């Protein structure tokens, strides 16, 4: 039996004019444009953050120039999966209406699907240093089909795909209600045959926390699919050592849960944000809860 390795499928930062072989749909009412900045934001792409003159491009759907309900569809080149699961990740910036929307579709090609229809996978709607860190917690399965787009900053998104036939990923921008002065922008797309993290903690202004006496920073509260509430803490006050801690915390479901959360595993990953997933560095720690291992106070 030959073991198969985790498979990289696609990475695109839109630096080349061919935009990684992505294509515009002829069935929509607007287009995505390759730009280096937008007056209402973003002022630079996510890959270079404005540090490299003459480079730094991303794709932008100008929702301010179209009517409500207009759509712009951008499809990837055809991809050939080896496994039945994939993780799509990308950065998204909203400078348009809070009601603008990004839909993620797959267009699957198979003998049984001769019409090659689009399948909606996820809806993302509006309502979130030079070297940034992420903490990704792979604790139980917690799939979502809806996410928010905070206005005015690049945000990282992960979308779980389950495709076995050759397919395209399609990004569908939708003009929402309300006033728009900008639109939706996407950058640094990566697709791999791996499991998506179940939770992502994006720490901003990371370098300002390093070495400070109050260098401990706590994540928001997260919930597992079984209802346990937990939190992650990073201690950055004693470099080069970094403390990474996992805490169970009080939550809304405490009365219905088994304590002390026996035989569950969490994997925490500190990950840098190189635009190409193949060049990223990471540091992982895993913890398995054992009800028979306790320490005194």
Automatic annotation (TrEMBL):
GO terms for cellular component: membrane. SMART domains: MAM. Pfam families: MAM, MATH_2. InterPro entries: ConA-like_dom_sf, MAM_dom, MAM_domain-containing, MATH/TRAF_dom, TRAF-like. This is Meprin A subunit beta. The lineage of its organism: Eukaryota, Metazoa, Chordata, Craniata, Vertebrata. Residues 10-198 form the MAM domain. Residues 196-297 form the MATH domain. SUPFAM superfamilies: Concanavalin A-like lectins/glucanases, TRAF domain-like.
